[in-house]
């Protein structure tokens, strides 16, 4: 009996065995969780989004099912319900990103008459028509290979749009109604970590700031509004930047009732362009370095590895271990960063990781002893599987840690770190030193990078200079721009126009808004600050939030009781009296008082960065949270990572436009 499907597969050219591409893991009896473990407000929101997803999908369909997604939707589905969708009761065979396949490979691997298909993509006309046409071509290829006349019907083919809140003319999908049942999944936000949520829109920065696609504001508004409708409205909104001001106004005008969130004091919304320096810097927190060495995946919860890394964990018992069996069946081996103890160490400075790991290794040994002593068979089985995953953590993360140490000590990294320290010495020093810097030959090193084919690195160096010094002198800027066009071709103009539009590349103007001036107002750089993840530098978003909570105060006012007095405890006073003189008018902070008074003790703070936030900034906000003694919930359009840097977004956007025009 088992031979027949194989013969059929050879005759038709259709493969019979399907693998699993889920990056999350579902084991009912195993304490193995790749989904972030949250609490309080985000836990409730996470449960709400998962429940919404499971109710929306026709999971009671009698056939086995495959979920087919584009890249963004695949990330969202993993984070919102990937673990639960693998429950045998739902009969879902696999979830894949169709963009990783051409039509023939997809057809041979995944197309079956015996399956039902859930096609889930972004809510844009381009994404919808591309996915639906891809499925139609796969049907044609299937009939060609199998010599069949199979027809798609809405009974077995379902199409869902993930909310992007861009203009969408549903009538354009009318031709597909005879083949697909059309629907929408109303889940705009994914919970990434126990204190982080994201729209997971990896090209949000270039869309909004480089292409002026203001539709993303509707996406952000709808996401935050969904959150507020369930948990109450934010009583106060602080905003910085053109789009953050617009967003604050939308949130105020469109508020439908007066039920306020009793767990949150205020939300701080800030444009990414308020700080274009930090995303280009090297951060030394554990999570940033994992991303630098391994490249954290789009779901922000896993990194790809060679499966042999697990051999050192499970050893000779791996063949009989249920956890290893599930891991080995995955199409891509990966390290699950969340669950177990990762949430604790992800918040630590890299220098402290060894101590934390030693504690976890000790705890694993204690768990092993308890497991061996357990008499109940069912309890022992549960403890054994839990122990195996603790052992995996306690074995794998020291290997990650060692890989990072090796990377940190390489010549290239040491050179980058030294250059960053030199940059800090220049940018946070006197105007005389800055003038000296610009007398140096900046064009020469940039040309050298272009000669070596390091296009992205050259753009990054320019972005750092423009951010730190508020631009480059016009004659030098024009000279460097000519180099780029000569070495990279006329298409380089498209990249530069987007970067200029966003302010990432710019010429110096009459008013200097340099980080030297900002440092004089906010003390961003304190060389001896050992708690900094950037070698003494604190990101501007973090320092400006601290300045909201703890502005410059007189001795009398800083001793006041209540909300502010409690917030000031343990936080250094900041010199902010000249800040508005330094910032542009759009960057002046606006306060939207939806509710005039906030009763009770200090509560949570929500920070939302429009255009992406880095792992280093997340770690710095967590550090501030500990110093304040107040929880900070962190949100953004996406997490900026090694694989989706701002520079990379510009390059990919320009390449995409070139493909369309060609």
Automatic annotation (TrEMBL):
Keywords: Coiled coil. This is Vacuolar protein sorting-associated protein 33A, putative. It holds the Pfam family Sec1. The lineage of its organism: Eukaryota, Amoebozoa, Evosea, Archamoebae, Mastigamoebida. Residues 353-380 form a coiled coil. The keyword Transmembrane helix does not apply. Belongs to the STXBP/unc-18/SEC1 family. GO terms for biological process: vesicle-mediated transport. The keyword Coiled coil applies.
